[in-house]
Amino acid sequence: YQYQPSTGSESMADSAPKKRTFRKFQYRGIELEALLDLPKTDLITLFPARIRRRLGRTHARGYSTLIKKLNKAKKEAPMHEKPDVVKTHLRNLVIRPDMIGSVVGVYNGKSFVSVEIKAEMIGTYLAEYSMTYKPIKHGRPGIGATASSKFVPLK
Questions:
Q1: Cα dist from 97 to 27, 138, 143, whole Å
Q2: pTM of the model
Q3: Are 117 and 126 within 8 A, CB to CB?
Q4: Residue 7: phi, psi to the nearest 5?
Q5: What does the alpha-carbon distance between residue 62 and residue 123 come to, in Å, rounded to a whole number?
Q6: pLDDT at 75
């Protein structure tokens, strides 16, 4: 390779910066648009074994009701805005492609944690995004934590 200085006769189109191309989301090699068009039986074959086994059985009424509420909230939302939060206790619901863009309030035992469903979440459970405990922050031990801490002098 030899360096060749530019002569200035190049067109402006060549020197313009290239537009960034974003990577399209794929789940197991299938793009999102194709996932949305897949029938339920073909979609189930893409999921891991535990989820395949679960979805192969019939859904309880609560799951289909929640999905209907999510679709209704998406339809009623204005263009380019997030839909209303749909609250649920169904932590074991598997996220499917038709749920993308919805906002779900997942109950963690104390409060509802808002989760915006994205394409990367397909094939996971709602519970994975709503922690049921608060991570421990280790600091100084409190009073009565050890035998020696009982003998704190009073000033």
A1: 10, 40, 51
A2: 0.73
A3: no
A4: -90, -10
A5: 19
A6: 93
